Amino acid sequence: MRLFHFSDDPDIAVFEPRPVRIASIRPAGREWLNGPLVWAIDGDHDFLYLFPRDCPRILIWAMPETPESERRRWLGDWRAAAFIERGWLERLEAETIHRYEMPTEDFEDLGDAGMWVSRRRVIPMERIAVSRLDREFAPRRVELRVVDSLRRLKSLWDTSLHVSGIRLRNARDWEWGG
Protein backbone atom coordinates (compact mmCIF):
# COMPACT_ATOMS: atom_id res chain seq x y z
CA MET A 1 0.00 0.00 0.00
CA ARG A 2 1.16 3.53 -0.78
CA LEU A 3 0.14 6.74 0.98
CA PHE A 4 0.19 10.24 -0.46
CA HIS A 5 -0.38 13.84 0.52
CA PHE A 6 -1.25 16.40 -2.17
CA SER A 7 -0.32 20.07 -1.89
CA ASP A 8 0.17 23.17 -3.98
CA ASP A 9 3.41 23.74 -2.01
CA PRO A 10 6.45 22.21 -3.77
CA ASP A 11 8.83 22.67 -0.83
CA ILE A 12 7.56 20.62 2.10
CA ALA A 13 10.50 18.88 3.76
CA VAL A 14 8.62 17.84 6.91
CA PHE A 15 4.89 17.52 7.59
CA GLU A 16 4.11 18.70 11.11
CA PRO A 17 0.78 17.67 12.68
CA ARG A 18 -1.66 20.55 12.59
CA PRO A 19 -5.39 21.01 13.18
CA VAL A 20 -7.75 21.18 10.23
CA ARG A 21 -8.37 24.69 8.88
CA ILE A 22 -12.13 24.44 9.28
CA ALA A 23 -13.34 22.03 11.95
CA SER A 24 -15.97 19.45 11.01
CA ILE A 25 -18.69 18.00 13.17
CA ARG A 26 -17.29 14.62 14.23
CA PRO A 27 -19.01 11.64 15.83
CA ALA A 28 -18.60 11.29 19.58
CA GLY A 29 -15.14 10.01 20.40
CA ARG A 30 -13.69 11.17 17.05
CA GLU A 31 -13.41 14.88 17.79
CA TRP A 32 -9.62 14.36 17.81
CA LEU A 33 -9.80 14.28 13.98
CA ASN A 34 -10.01 18.10 14.05
CA GLY A 35 -6.79 18.25 16.08
CA PRO A 36 -3.14 18.22 15.08
CA LEU A 37 -2.60 15.47 12.50
CA VAL A 38 -0.81 14.76 9.25
CA TRP A 39 -3.30 13.51 6.66
CA ALA A 40 -2.67 11.06 3.82
CA ILE A 41 -4.72 9.20 1.23
CA ASP A 42 -4.10 5.69 -0.07
CA GLY A 43 -3.29 5.06 -3.72
CA ASP A 44 -6.74 3.61 -4.49
CA HIS A 45 -8.40 6.88 -3.48
CA ASP A 46 -5.80 9.43 -4.57
CA PHE A 47 -8.19 10.77 -7.22
CA LEU A 48 -10.07 12.60 -4.44
CA TYR A 49 -7.17 15.08 -4.28
CA LEU A 50 -6.19 15.52 -7.94
CA PHE A 51 -7.65 19.03 -7.87
CA PRO A 52 -6.56 22.59 -7.14
CA ARG A 53 -6.72 23.00 -3.36
CA ASP A 54 -9.98 24.93 -3.06
CA CYS A 55 -11.83 23.25 -5.93
CA PRO A 56 -15.30 22.09 -4.84
CA ARG A 57 -16.07 18.56 -5.98
CA ILE A 58 -18.32 15.57 -5.47
CA LEU A 59 -16.90 12.09 -5.91
CA ILE A 60 -18.90 8.88 -6.06
CA TRP A 61 -18.30 5.14 -6.27
CA ALA A 62 -20.29 1.99 -5.69
CA MET A 63 -20.39 0.24 -2.33
CA PRO A 64 -20.86 -3.53 -1.92
CA GLU A 65 -24.55 -2.93 -1.14
CA THR A 66 -25.12 -0.68 -4.20
CA PRO A 67 -27.66 -2.32 -6.53
CA GLU A 68 -26.33 -2.99 -10.01
CA SER A 69 -29.00 -0.76 -11.56
CA GLU A 70 -27.91 2.21 -9.45
CA ARG A 71 -24.23 1.53 -10.15
CA ARG A 72 -24.86 1.40 -13.91
CA ARG A 73 -27.03 4.54 -13.81
CA TRP A 74 -24.43 6.68 -12.07
CA LEU A 75 -21.14 5.05 -13.07
CA GLY A 76 -21.62 3.05 -16.25
CA ASP A 77 -18.34 1.19 -16.75
CA TRP A 78 -16.32 3.62 -14.63
CA ARG A 79 -14.95 2.73 -11.19
CA ALA A 80 -15.86 6.19 -9.88
CA ALA A 81 -16.96 9.63 -11.04
CA ALA A 82 -15.68 13.09 -10.09
CA PHE A 83 -17.94 16.12 -10.59
CA ILE A 84 -16.64 19.68 -10.78
CA GLU A 85 -18.24 22.95 -11.74
CA ARG A 86 -17.50 24.28 -15.23
CA GLY A 87 -15.87 27.38 -13.74
CA TRP A 88 -13.07 25.22 -12.29
CA LEU A 89 -12.15 23.33 -15.46
CA GLU A 90 -9.58 25.84 -16.69
CA ARG A 91 -7.76 25.78 -13.35
CA LEU A 92 -7.88 21.96 -13.34
CA GLU A 93 -6.19 21.97 -16.75
CA ALA A 94 -3.61 24.65 -15.86
CA GLU A 95 -2.51 24.16 -12.25
CA THR A 96 0.27 21.95 -10.99
CA ILE A 97 0.02 20.20 -7.64
CA HIS A 98 2.58 18.11 -5.80
CA ARG A 99 2.12 14.51 -4.74
CA TYR A 100 4.21 13.60 -1.73
CA GLU A 101 4.68 9.91 -1.04
CA MET A 102 4.57 9.23 2.67
CA PRO A 103 6.11 6.39 4.67
CA THR A 104 3.34 4.13 5.95
CA GLU A 105 4.63 3.62 9.50
CA ASP A 106 3.02 5.86 12.11
CA PHE A 107 -0.16 6.24 10.02
CA GLU A 108 -3.48 4.86 11.20
CA ASP A 109 -6.33 3.90 8.89
CA LEU A 110 -9.54 5.83 9.52
CA GLY A 111 -11.55 3.17 7.67
CA ASP A 112 -13.12 5.95 5.60
CA ALA A 113 -12.48 6.47 1.87
CA GLY A 114 -8.77 5.69 2.02
CA MET A 115 -7.92 8.36 4.61
CA TRP A 116 -5.02 7.84 7.01
CA VAL A 117 -3.62 10.07 9.75
CA SER A 118 -0.43 10.37 11.76
CA ARG A 119 -0.11 12.11 15.09
CA ARG A 120 3.66 12.54 14.53
CA ARG A 121 5.76 14.58 12.14
CA VAL A 122 6.34 12.87 8.81
CA ILE A 123 9.23 13.21 6.38
CA PRO A 124 8.04 12.49 2.83
CA MET A 125 9.95 9.97 0.76
CA GLU A 126 9.36 11.59 -2.63
CA ARG A 127 7.65 14.52 -4.36
CA ILE A 128 6.27 14.46 -7.88
CA ALA A 129 4.76 17.47 -9.69
CA VAL A 130 1.42 16.63 -11.34
CA SER A 131 0.18 18.88 -14.16
CA ARG A 132 -2.81 18.66 -16.50
CA LEU A 133 -4.89 17.24 -13.69
CA ASP A 134 -7.83 16.70 -16.05
CA ARG A 135 -5.82 13.89 -17.70
CA GLU A 136 -5.16 12.01 -14.44
CA PHE A 137 -8.66 10.58 -13.96
CA ALA A 138 -9.26 8.25 -16.93
CA PRO A 139 -6.14 6.12 -16.25
CA ARG A 140 -7.59 5.52 -12.75
CA ARG A 141 -10.95 4.51 -14.29
CA VAL A 142 -12.56 7.65 -12.88
CA GLU A 143 -14.76 9.75 -15.13
CA LEU A 144 -14.36 13.51 -14.78
CA ARG A 145 -17.78 15.14 -15.23
CA VAL A 146 -18.09 18.89 -15.66
CA VAL A 147 -21.43 20.35 -14.56
CA ASP A 148 -22.85 23.86 -14.30
CA SER A 149 -23.75 23.40 -10.63
CA LEU A 150 -22.91 20.83 -7.97
CA ARG A 151 -26.10 21.75 -6.16
CA ARG A 152 -28.16 19.61 -8.56
CA LEU A 153 -26.25 16.56 -7.25
CA LYS A 154 -27.44 16.77 -3.63
CA SER A 155 -29.71 13.78 -4.19
CA LEU A 156 -26.60 11.58 -4.49
CA TRP A 157 -26.51 11.50 -0.67
CA ASP A 158 -29.85 9.62 -0.84
CA THR A 159 -28.35 6.78 -2.91
CA SER A 160 -26.43 3.70 -1.80
CA LEU A 161 -23.27 5.05 -3.44
CA HIS A 162 -20.34 6.35 -1.43
CA VAL A 163 -20.47 10.15 -1.84
CA SER A 164 -17.64 12.46 -0.83
CA GLY A 165 -18.16 16.21 -1.00
CA ILE A 166 -14.95 18.21 -0.69
CA ARG A 167 -14.66 22.01 -0.44
CA LEU A 168 -18.38 22.37 -1.18
CA ARG A 169 -18.38 25.68 0.71
CA ASN A 170 -16.59 27.02 -2.41
CA ALA A 171 -19.26 25.82 -4.83
CA ARG A 172 -21.09 28.52 -6.75
CA ASP A 173 -24.55 28.07 -5.20
CA TRP A 174 -24.13 25.40 -2.55
CA GLU A 175 -26.30 25.41 0.58
CA TRP A 176 -26.57 22.36 2.82
CA GLY A 177 -30.10 23.17 3.92
CA GLY A 178 -31.62 23.98 0.54
UniProtKB/TrEMBL annotation:
<dbReference type="Pfam" id="PF21820">
    <property type="entry name" value="DUF6886"/>
</dbReference>
<protein>
    <submittedName>
        <fullName>Uncharacterized protein</fullName>
    </submittedName>
</protein>
<dbReference type="InterPro" id="IPR049253">
    <property type="entry name" value="DUF6886"/>
</dbReference>
